[in-house]
Write a structure and sequence with these properties.
CATH class of the largest domain: Alpha Beta
Shape: elongated
Strand content: 5-15%
CATH architecture of the largest domain: 3-Layer(aba) Sandwich
Structural class: alpha/beta
Low-confidence stretches: none
Distance between the termini: 72 Å
Number of domains: 5
CATH superfamily of the largest domain: P-loop containing nucleotide triphosphate hydrolases
Helix content: 40-55%
């Protein structure tokens, strides 16, 4: 791009090489030769025919204003600087290549869309930034809208996002949007002829897409729209070559990124290797966890690492918890309950058994499970339902925070030590709906049914190998799922409340 500036010379003098400009060239001809000057005059004629600035005509010779107008125009024309991707972009290049292969399968002359989806903290935003940096110079303009979900939740959020999109693409602050409907018309009218790159980061609702990038024909041919989301089915109409599932880091990548943040080196010191491997295993290849924990442990002694890791297994790091919990907060109450039941009791169980049990608890479990899978909070492995360990821990931490100091008032109990304390001290309450007992912590202990008397709303009970005596009529009439393998009793009394059991 050439933007000629005519400083104390008229454009016609440059175009025709006349006046003092022509006199100077005649002098140069003697020094440099006719052939070179002929090239110069041809280039100058071409430059003078371009749109540019003439000091005398633009601002009446006022040089400071002249400079200001040049700066304003250049700022409108040049592309923005690249985005900061990551401090240590481990594993990014290989994943960007995978997305590049998807983009190559489409036609460059059409408007292309690509959806990057996956669980929170897996690095979707990092990938989107890397793709943006690789591609933005090939477009007339580009726009990266960060945190679309949270921005849209603010007052007049969608309107502000529409304005931001128009400002970044048109490189002007003059556009004002008064309503979502007006914003849609402005985007459609002003961007349809432009080849642009748009990134919508962290989209969680169709209203955001409909307000910003509803139809491909809103944009010029060759445009590229990248969307990141936690919801696999938010863009269900996209083809297979327009969808990319963000992948967890492999063990080698995980070690590199964790060590870089913990030690500023791609591998840990020898003394820390075993602990680092334990933490990486705990993180499950989730980049957010590796970066957060590496930074958290940086500069600490081995002994401090041990203390911190022990605490982490009981109470997840708040930064990790906050990111992962965003997906949970977006669920309706019924689906939240199903998620917490699976996190606390049914991780790794067959889907048909979970569905049968939770339907009997008056949940719409098929719909809830489908939503959790779409939101990347749950996966199907064969016939079973599983969660990433950190997602499961996030759910369990939500339950712990129901009553941090009094576990007997929580809705779901699964921690072996806390369960032993509650049963031996008869500390349960009517809040308890799920109780999972580890027989190892109560081995040889004779329990009375009185320990369960206050748990009137108990739906799920696992008491394998336990020796329990007393009046079984004291157990909850709400029981839907019971596991009592290797029970020592020859028979169960007739007043055992089994009328609502389904499993």
């Amino acid at each position: 791009m050439v933007l000629p500036i005519f400083y104390d010379v008229h454009p016609s003098q440059v175009r025709k090489q006349t006046g003092c400009f022509g006199e100077a060239l005649a002098t140069h001809k003697v020094r440099f030769g006719a052939q070179k000057i002929e090239k110069w005059t041809s280039a100058l004629t071409e430059a003078a025919n371009l749109s540019g600035w003439d000091l005398q005509n633009v601002v009446d010779g006022h040089e400071s204003k002249f400079i200001g107008s040049i700066i304003q125009q250049v700022l409108q024309e040049v592309n923005q600087t690249p985005l900061d991707v990551a401090w240590y972009p481990v594993g990014v290049d290989s994943r960007v290549k995978d997305i590049e292969l998807l983009l190559q399968s489409g036609c460059e002359d059409e408007v292309r869309m690509i959806d990057i989806y996956g669980v929170g903290g897996i690095g979707k935003t990092t990938l989107a930034k890397a793709i943006h940096n690789q591609k933005f110079r090939h477009f007339a303009s580009s726009c990266f809208l960060s945190n679309v979900r949270s921005e849209a939740e603010a007052f007049n959020g969608l309107v502000k996002l529409q304005e931001k999109l128009l400002h970044q693409i048109l490189k002007t602050k003059d556009v004002r949007v008064s309503s979502v409907a007006e914003g849609i018309n402005l985007i459609r009218a002003k961007l349809r002829s432009k080849k642009i790159l748009i990134v919508l980061d962290d989209v969680d609702h169709t209203s955001q897409l409909e307000s910003l990038t509803r139809e491909r024909r809103w944009f010029g041919l060759g445009s590229l729209i990248i969307i990141t989301t936690r919801d696999e089915h938010l863009l269900c109409d996209l083809g297979a070559n327009e969808r990319y599932e963000a992948k967890l880091l492999n063990d080698n990548e995980a070690m590199q990124i964790f060590s870089c943040h913990a030690f500023n080196s791609p591998s840990p010191p020898h003394d820390y290797v075993n602990l680092a491997q334990d933490i990486i295993k705990y993180s499950g290849g989730l980049p957010l966890a590796l970066v957060t924990l590496g930074s958290h442990l940086r500069g600490r002694s081995i002994e401090e690492w041990r203390y911190e890791f022990k605490k982490l297994r009981a109470i997840p790091h708040s930064d990790i918890q906050k990111i992962l919990k965003v997906s949970f907060d977006g669920l309706d109450g019924d689906t939240q309950c199903v998620f917490l039941d699976i996190a606390c009791a049914f991780h790794g169980f067959p889907e048909d058994e979970v569905t049968k049990t939770l339907n009997a608890c008056s949940f719409y479990s098929e719909s809830a499970i489908a939503t959790l899978v779409q939101k990347q909070l749950l996966q199907r492995e064969g016939r079973c339902l599983v969660m990433h360990d950190l997602v499961r821990d996030m759910g369990r931490e939500i339950v712990r925070m129901e009553s941090p100091r009094d576990p007997g008032r929580r809705s779901r109990l699964f921690s072996p030590q806390e369960v032993r304390y509650i049963l031996q001290g008869h500390k349960g309450s009517e809040n308890v709906e799920i109780l999972i007992v580890d027989p190892r912590v109560l081995k040889g202990v004779n329990l009375s049914t009185k320990a369960f008397k206050k748990m009137k709303n108990l739906r799920v009970l696992k008491i394998n190998e336990l020796d329990i005596g007393g009046d079984f009529d004291l157990l909850s009439k709400e029981l839907r799922w019971l596991s009592w393998q290797k029970r020592p009793l020859r028979s169960i009394s007739s007043n055992f409340p089994a009328e609502n059991l389904v499993v």
